[in-house]
Fold:
Amino acid sequence: MTLAIPHQQRLPLAIAALGFLFLGLFLLYPLFNVFGASLLDSEGEKFTFANYLKVLGRPFYRGAIVNTLTIGVAATVTTTLMSVPFAFALARLPVPGKAAILALAAMPLVLPSFVSAYAIVLLLGRAGIVTQWLNSWGIGFGSIYGAGGIVLVYTLTLYPYVLLPTMAGFKAVDVSVEEAAQSLGSSPRRTLWTVTLPIVLPSILAGGLLVFIETLENFGVPFVLAEDMPIFAVEAFKLFIGETAPNPSSAGVLGVLLILTTAAVLLVQRRYLSSRRFATGARAAPPVLQVGPVLRIAAAVYCWTVVLLALVPFFAIVVLSFMEFRGPVLHANFSLENFAILFDRSTRPLLNTLLFATAAAVAVTLVGVPIAYVVTRLRGALATVLDVVATLPFAVAGTVLAIGFVVSFNSGWLILTGGPLIMVLAYTVRKVPFAVRSSSAILHQIDSSLEEASVSLGRSPLQTFGRILVPLMLGGILSGFVLTWVTVASELSATVVLYSGQWRTLTVVMFQALESGGGGVATAAASTLIVVTLLPIALLYRLVRRYELS
Amino acid sequence: MSGIVIEGAVRSFGTVRAVDGVNLTVGDGEFFTLLGPSGCGKTTLLRMIAGFCELDAGEIRFGARRIDKLPAHTRDIGMVFQNYAVFPNLTVAGNVAYGLKARRVAEADLARRVDEALALVQLAGYGERWPHQLSGGQLQRVAIARALVIRPQVLLFDEPLSNLDARLRVSMRAEIRELQKSLGITAIYVTHDQEEAMSVSDRIALMQSGKLEQVGAPSEIYRNPATRFAAEFMGTTNLLEARALGRDGAGKVSLRPEALRLDAEAPAGWPRIGGTVAQVEILGPITRFDVRLADGSLLKVAALDEPHRTLATGAAVMLAYDPARLTMLP
Structure:
């Protein structure tokens, strides 16, 4: 008696089973343990709600919740206000150097945001260069520590999340809809407000919610800039490190609250967007509008200012890393001294970063691409559940997942803590949603008759996957690989929880240098990280360019 | 191998019975067409044979061998798809060699067979080209060569010509028929185009709502449609109450437009029927005109072009029809 599984579904089902096994063990099980930790007493024995009452009863943690949400909303609003006109200008106005702007605008997505935050401190902080220079002229300004600085850094580093989908939205508007409005007597300005913007609104909101979720989860930026202001992800980390009892119940509570908040936001987004999908079926991008010289110059200045301003902190860090730090004060003696100190101590952090990023990118590809195949090719409830589970890491802050990992894998049958594998696994789980998204986008464009043709010619579904689908997806797989590599290299929130001893990464070195006030090493590590991030991106660009030319 | 036998094939999607108890026998070397409107189940039936669609009930045999439980890649079938499905990451030769490599054909033999197959579809010398350099018609030739070269037991065609322009469709269908006959491979062909089906097929199975409406040679279905649906789907016809032609019985009759002639042009023995000309279309080789009968119904008439014939809208005419070409419908 064989199982009555249709033969053309055996491969997808086998992959789905493996996918559930992996995500079950390394995502659902750790998260379950975080929930468990929050509901058990500090010895991990008795079931109790006391932890929730204890944490929520303290004004400090209630403040953390309020602060985090307030900063998130504020950053989402500023990001949106900055990006929507930017997107409109790129999509519809004559702006010089659009290709260059787009390439530069995508860079904050891959550069580590806490590096930007640190640069802001070095420039505008108490002992900052710009601050001191302004002080010498008798000009003062408010503190950049706290909410204001955090919102500033979020705005500068997260704006591409709104810019890119909104620009795509503006380009997808069928111009005949606008023409119809104008033929009915609507002025161009009124048309923009009553027709174009409402059509683009879902794209704007989708981008805005991404920003909001990123701010909820971000650990590095508030760690650098919040000082004594309590922020969710940072406090969860501090509680976890500080809890000496066997069961990290308080950290568990904050973790659960963080997960529930992001999950709620994602649910609201799904509900809203599912009912508002305006497919206008534009055949060609709408034409660039003819505008007067004033508006044209204003648009160009605006776009270039935003895109360059966002990159100034990174540029500044690279410059500052060649300068001499005496305590917090900078001196303009340019040398390689900082890098010498950084690498004299050990080159292991750099090597670890390269190793982990490569291992995680390989693992993410091996896990994500097959899952994308199942999600696109196997319709039905099982595929939907797998899709949801594979998207779940997106709603889980790195700190929380890492706490779950420590709770789950520091005893029992599978002990991973203290080694490098636990870090690679955490990175892999965190980045799987991106691989699944990008791969399934390509797979949707590959007609399934290609697979059927291959099967009818005598190749099994598995051989067909390797010989037809993988070659066709190669471009997307490669860029997904590089993106994973780059974002893992600058990962901080899970890393600070999971690293141990010799397995420190560049981000940990920077984190530790910040804690101990070692500005020289921190900037050297930061600019090394920037180079490490940008190099593969540049290589990918070249590769794609060459591929397109041939 | 002795043809294909389908017994009691059933497949439902949700509440829809896409294939609803189909029994068919296709002879060895026969060119057999599944014809019907979209949604009639013809493509589902073809995909059942190919192995891309499970049967809820029933079975499919190639000769004595039952194949409906076999994985698709072991069924030894050549399939040609509507959108060609030529692998864009392989050259033309790579596409044609794909199935041979899966069968581990020796290298020397492989190159020769690829060249032969390409010559067969008039693409000799195109082996090194890439799919994106070819036209739609050439792509479909590659797809056909790729399906033929593995010498399959059965060739399946899923609306292979519907993405081509009208002129190419006509020449390609003749080519496909010629190839199939010269190679003697059993072929099952799916189309919604009645004229295409009639031109290529040995036999046609007309399908509607997952069931077989009528199976037979093209001329037989055209001349003796078993149902009203068959009569209407296989070309233009006049569906009339039998009484309107002065016949007995309560049922309807089908009368093809070309079975009607003007009184002066018809043999004396044919029954006559009078009316007024409602509309005239002179299309070149044939003239179509509608005649309104006394009871208000319209008769469509088609006649070869005749230089001395005059037909004016509103004029009274007397028509004659061939009683042998009148089909009683249930």
Summary: The CA atoms of residues 285 and 338 of chain A lie 49 Å apart.
